[in-house]
């Protein structure tokens, strides 16, 4: 009896496997254009949405080839196969390591790209032979993790490009380096974090954003200054900062930014418990006003509108 049941189960499993293979074959027979339309929800878009999709399709294909689109079960085998070589090229492009060489025991084995790129094509071949047309393979979590890393690299790449463009515009309009550093360069230094925070908050994780926003400056200030001071003082001895002279280390602008940062932290520490640990719109507007006030005062100081007073007292 048990033997008959096992045979029946095997027949059912074989039947299911054959049905899956038939469905895969039918789906593989669909044209690439039909698959792309289904993948990008062509039928659900308006005429304007379709026009935007056509215009942005080259960038979208590059994005989806480098990042596995796990949202809403999006999957297309033809794009999935492109992941290894596309991710490899994107990493080499963003890190600018085309000419990085493999050196073992003083012997040069050639550039990394000559070794890694062929391996990526072999991985694509493995994916093509093992992946289904209907569902992601079992090793899909690997590409989800890679997608997170590559997404961060995309954000950093666009942030750097945007800062470069803004810096060029600043040079064209003869904006001083001090103003550039206070505004554009300062924004560029935190632009990728800002974009990430907004996206995470938009997805419905405000608690995560709050933790990141307050822990990131702690990391930058304590670890960044700590490591920098250790390296600098170990080579040249104690650091002596000056407040006077033609190029002082501690400027009034730095003092203004420091005081506004301290004021914002203390204000948050007071207001949040009063409101029952709720971050409301009033607090958000208040923090933005504090930031704009610090920028305004710093610019007034840079343009010598404020009285020339040395705030740092030693």
Automatic annotation (TrEMBL):
It is a multi-pass membrane protein. Keywords: Membrane, Transmembrane, Transmembrane helix, Transport. It is found in: Membrane. InterPro entries: CaCA_antiporter, NaCa_Exmemb, NCX_ion-bd_dom_sf. Residues 146-299 form the Sodium/calcium exchanger membrane region domain. The chain crosses the membrane at residues 48-67, 79-103, 109-130, 142-159, 212-231, 254-275, 282-306. One of its GO terms (molecular function) is monoatomic cation transmembrane transporter activity. One of its GO terms (cellular component) is membrane. This is Sodium/calcium exchanger membrane region domain-containing protein. It comes from Arcella intermedia.
């Amino acid at each position: 009896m048990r033997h008959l049941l096992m045979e029946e189960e095997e027949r059912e499993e074989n039947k299911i496997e054959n049905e899956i293979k038939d469905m895969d074959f039918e789906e593989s027979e669909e044209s690439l254009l039909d698959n792309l339309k289904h993948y990008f929800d062509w039928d659900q878009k308006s005429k304007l949405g379709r026009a935007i999709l056509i215009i942005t399709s080259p960038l979208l294909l590059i994005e989806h080839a480098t990042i596995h689109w796990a949202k809403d079960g999006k999957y297309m085998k033809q794009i999935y196969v492109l992941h290894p070589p596309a991710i490899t090229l994107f990493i080499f492009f963003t890190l600018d390591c085309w000419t990085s060489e493999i050196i073992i025991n003083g012997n040069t084995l050639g550039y990394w790209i000559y070794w890694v790129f062929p391996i990526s094509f072999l991985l694509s071949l493995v994916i093509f032979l093992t992946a289904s047309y209907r569902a992601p393979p079992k090793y899909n979590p690997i590409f989800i993790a890679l997608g997170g890393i590559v997404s961060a690299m995309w954000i950093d790449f666009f942030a750097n490009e945007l800062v470069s463009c803004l810096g060029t515009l600043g040079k064209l309009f003869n904006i001083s380096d001090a103003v550039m550093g206070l505004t554009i360069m300062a924004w560029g230094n935190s632009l990728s974090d800002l974009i990430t925070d907004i996206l995470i908050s938009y997805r419905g994780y405000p608690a995560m954003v709050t933790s990141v926003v307050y822990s990131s400056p702690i990391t930058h200030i304590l670890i960044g200054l700590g490591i920098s001071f250790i390296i600098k003082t170990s080579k040249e001895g104690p650091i002596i900062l000056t407040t006077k002279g033609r190029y002082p280390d501690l400027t009034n602008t730095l003092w203004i930014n420091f005081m506004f940062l301290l004021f914002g932290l203390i204000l948050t520490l007071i207001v949040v418990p009063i409101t029952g640990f709720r971050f409301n719109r009033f607090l958000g507007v208040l923090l933005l006003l504090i930031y704009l006030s610090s920028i305004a005062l710093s610019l007034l100081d840079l343009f010598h509108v404020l009285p020339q007073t040395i705030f740092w007292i030693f």
